[in-house]
Design goal:
It contains 8 helices and 15 strands. It is α+β, with helices and mostly antiparallel strands. The strands form 3 sheets. It has a 6-stranded antiparallel β-barrel with strand order 1-10-14-12-11-15. The chain has a 4-stranded antiparallel beta sheet with strand order 2-9-7-4, with no helix packed on it. The protein has a 4-stranded antiparallel beta sheet with strand order 6-5-3-8, with no helix packed on it.
């Protein structure tokens, strides 16, 4: 069977010019293909997330007293720079000083009462000491006389005087004399020990009295801190507790700035009565953090210690390098101002960024990023951007 088909035409190779003409005739299709490619390129390069809006956190300290009272002095002026721990105002400590003076007088009175008790005890011990000394003297005299009598009874022949010999011979009860002598010797031994204990008691009471006298003199002019009183041993536990409480109240009359900053406002005047919780003055603290909002769908773009760059909205060409300090675990929702639909919300987390060290003020200079200033946080270092983003900048791309 033949492979020849008489009705099949031989393929003709199209010339290049003809092919080009046919392609040019299909220009609408080429335009749609180009637009599709452009749309894909725009999607990949124009909607990537690499910046957030934020603001320099403002720390405001409202200086208030912990107890009501009258304002005695204001030591700062509005606009003055203060460091942490600076005394900015003083409340009137007169009520606490009166309470302290009352406590001192009470301490002195208690010490004087104890001193009188020791004086009475010393009088009793001194009387007892005199009695012991008298008894010792009597026993020693009796011992000497009894010793003589017993010596005479043991050698009556040695006595020349007939009258004395008769008296000695009349002393037939030598046993009783020996018993009396033994009693006298025993009382002497006991009185010697008792005398030592009485002298020790007198010494102890005298030293305690001197200690109380010194404490009374020191308490009359006591002006120590709470820590110094606890180490001085001048007061007992109850007195120490009362003194420390009053001293703390006096120290707290000096209102101090917890953080450094600038005095923004003075709300009270000297002599005005201030209740607990009422602000005396307000201090705007030095900026230490920058707060921004990270959309939830971009939560994997940032983590703690990741490097970011901060630029001021009024100076976008200068970027300050810093790091992420913390990411809030709570998801917040804010009104979406970019959506054309009403009541739209956007979910995300608060990001805490460390204040850039390069933005800190030098000598005689101000902060480069002021408290409350709006800034832009970049997740990538600002640099060249695609041409499309230069033509059509958006809030999600770097300018």
């Amino acid at each position: 069977m033949s492979e020849f088909h008489p009705n099949r035409t031989t393929p003709v190779r199209t010339k290049p010019k003809l092919t080009t003409r046919r392609i040019l005739e299909c220009w609408p299709l080429l335009i749609w293909v180009a637009m599709g490619a452009l749309a894909i390129w725009v999607y990949k390069s124009g909607v990537t997330f690499n910046r957030m809006n934020g603001a320099v956190d403002v720390y405001q300290e409202n200086v208030t007293p912990i107890e009501e009272g009258r304002l005695k002095e204001i030591k700062v002026k509005r606009g003055q720079q203060v460091t942490p721990g600076t005394v900015v105002a003083v409340m009137d400590p007169a009520p606490h000083l009166l309470e302290m003076e009352t406590l001192k007088r009470q301490i002195v009175a208690d010490r004087e009462k104890d001193i009188r008790d020791y004086d009475l005890e010393l009088i009793k011990l001194d009387a007892e000491l005199r009695e012991i000394e008298t008894s010792v003297a009597e026993d020693e005299a009796a011992k000497r006389e009894l010793s003589k009598v017993l010596a005479g009874l043991s050698a009556p022949a040695a006595i020349k005087d007939p009258a004395l010999r008769a008296i000695v011979n009349a002393q037939t009860d030598s046993v009783r004399n020996q018993v009396d002598l033994a009693k006298a010797e025993g009382r002497l031994t006991f009185n010697d020990k008792h005398l030592g204990s009485v002298n020790a008691a007198i010494k102890r009471v005298t030293e305690a009295r001197e200690t109380l006298a010194n404490q009374a003199a020191a308490a009359a002019k006591l002006d120590l801190s709470a820590e110094e009183v606890a180490k001085s041993n001048l007061l007992n536990a109850e007195e120490q507790q009362q003194y420390i409480e009053i001293r703390t109240k006096i120290d707290q009359c000096q209102l101090r700035a917890s953080h450094g900053g600038i005095v923004d406002r003075v709300d009270k005047e000297v002599g005005e009565y201030v209740n607990v919780g009422e602000g005396v003055l307000k201090i705007v603290g030095e900026p230490q953090q920058i707060i921004c909002f990270l959309p939830q769908d971009q939560a994997n773009q940032l983590w703690v210690d990741k490097e970011v760059w901060v630029t001021a909205t009024n100076q976008p060409d200068h970027a300050y390098k810093t790091v992420v300090e913390a990411i809030s675990p709570r998801i917040n929702n804010l009104a979406d101002a970019t959506s054309p639909l009403p009541n739209q919300r956007i979910h995300g987390r608060d990001i805490v960024v460390k204040y850039p060290p390069e933005a800190m003020p030098g000598e005689g200079k101000a902060y480069a990023l002021l408290p409350g200033q709006t800034v832009v946080i970049h997740t990538e270092k600002p640099g060249n951007v695609p041409l499309l983003n230069r033509i059509f900048p958006s809030d999600d791309t770097v300018r």
